[in-house]
Amino acid sequence: MNNGQKTRRLFYGEIIYSFAKDEEVNILHCLGYVKQCAKFFDVLHHKRAWMRLIVAHHLGASPNACYVAGPEDWIYGSFNVCIPVTVSSSWRRKRQRLMLWFPLPYCVSDHFCPGNSNEKL
């Protein structure tokens, strides 16, 4: 019960002040994660065509043979997001599946220390 306290949304659920004050992590940083996650996922979603070109280039395949999954199929946790890619070719009946991995920039302090997420790659 929140006793009339305002509930705040976190990446992993909700919290109220009476519980937040006893947490060992800085809840103020965590409060922005939901919005930052949505913003970053939107950026990634709009770069799916670019991802397809990069995967095709590295595998020597046609960009038309690559399918980059949408956000509903992405796998993510506290620090990373993995984007499934399926590559098919006319000379192979079997499809190749791979994952593109991206660190979440707001979780690796990229705003405090620009380039931190590049280091993770």
Feature tags:
single chain, 5 helices, 121 residues, alpha+beta, 33% helix
How are the secondary structure elements laid out?
Elements: E1 8-10, E2 13-15, H1 17-20, H2 27-31, H3 33-46, H4 48-59, E3 66-68, E4 75-76, E5 80-89, E6 92-103, H5 116-120
Antiparallel strand pairs: 1-2, 3-5, 4-5, 5-6
What does it look like?
This protein has 121 residues and is α+β, with helices and mostly antiparallel strands. Strands 3, 4, 5 and 6 form a four-stranded antiparallel beta sheet that branches. The chain is built from five helices and six strands. The chain has one domain (8-120).
Short description:
This protein has helices at 17-20, 27-31, 33-46, 48-59, 116-120; strands at residues 8-10, 13-15, 66-68, 75-76, 80-89, 92-103. By secondary structure, it is an alpha+beta fold.
- Gross morphology is elongated
| Beta-strand residue percentage | 25-35%
H and E string:
EEHHHHEEEEH
Number of strands: 6
Overall pLDDT metric: 79
Count structural domains.
1
Low-confidence stretches: none
The first-to-last residue Cα distance is: 42 Å
Structural class: alpha+beta
Helicity range = 25-40%
